[in-house]
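Input record, target 12 of the design panel.
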């Protein structure tokens, strides 16, 4: 078997509140990659919309989800154009994830499925490494922008993301562990097998060859002197 061709991009997909952005930032720094991040937040800010209005105004949520989908395509296309040939193009903290929300909150999913750009995009995602982050209750944090941190809501979105992965036969690496240490070890192993090496060596926290450990004062001399005095007496 020949060596794998290094992937051109890295995606982290899953429901909200699963740690995608945190892990994507670590990958960005470890491998010195451009990062596509928080597309949905940017669109929401540009629309000057509040999260509550997206939950009640169907026309607004349709517009929002359509713009998020198109913005993701635009950002990825731009990153690929700017990338150095033969080098990793980017890491993104999402891919098609907003379609899971579109299915759950909007009425535009049928239009998206009919859009020829969707199949083209899903095929392009297959050219990357996809990490699928699974939900954990400990990660549920309300920040005013997420679609909701209710556990049942997160699980529903998680299921929709997995449906999209399976529906379009996108290979993925499930990330079920919670500790950041274990997540980064998994990512390093997978990317290493894919031929991607870190841009820099891990930071050393101890000076070479190591910290000097002071030893306790020796009592051997005092013990020998005491024994000698006992014998002479």
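The sequence produced for target 12 reads:
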């Amino acid at each position: 078997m020949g060596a794998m061709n290094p992937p051109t991009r890295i995606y982290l997909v899953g429901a909200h509140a699963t740690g995608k952005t945190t892990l994507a930032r670590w990958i960005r720094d470890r491998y010195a990659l451009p990062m596509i991040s928080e597309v949905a937040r940017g669109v929401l800010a540009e629309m000057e919309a509040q999260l509550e209005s997206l939950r009640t105004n169907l026309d607004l949520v349709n517009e929002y989800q359509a713009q998020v989908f198109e913005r993701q395509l635009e950002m990825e296309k731009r990153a690929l154009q700017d990338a150095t040939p033969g080098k990793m193009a980017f890491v993104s903290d999402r891919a098609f994830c907003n379609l899971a929300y579109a299915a759950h909150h909007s009425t535009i999913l049928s239009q998206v499925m009919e859009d020829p750009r969707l199949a083209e995009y899903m095929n392009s995602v297959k050219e990357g490494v996809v990490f699928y982050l699974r939900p954990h209750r400990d990660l549920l944090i309300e920040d005013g922008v997420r679609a909701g941190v209710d556990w049942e809501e997160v699980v529903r979105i998680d299921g929709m993301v997995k449906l999209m992965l399976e529906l379009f036969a996108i290979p993925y690496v499930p990330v079920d562990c919670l500790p950041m240490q274990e997540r980064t070890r998994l990512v390093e192993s997978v990317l290493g097998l894919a031929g991607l090496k870190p841009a820099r060596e891990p930071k050393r926290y101890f000076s070479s060859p190591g910290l000097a450990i002071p030893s306790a004062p020796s009592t051997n001399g005092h013990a020998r002197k005491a024994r000698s005095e006992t014998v002479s007496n």
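The two ends are 83 Å apart (CA to CA).
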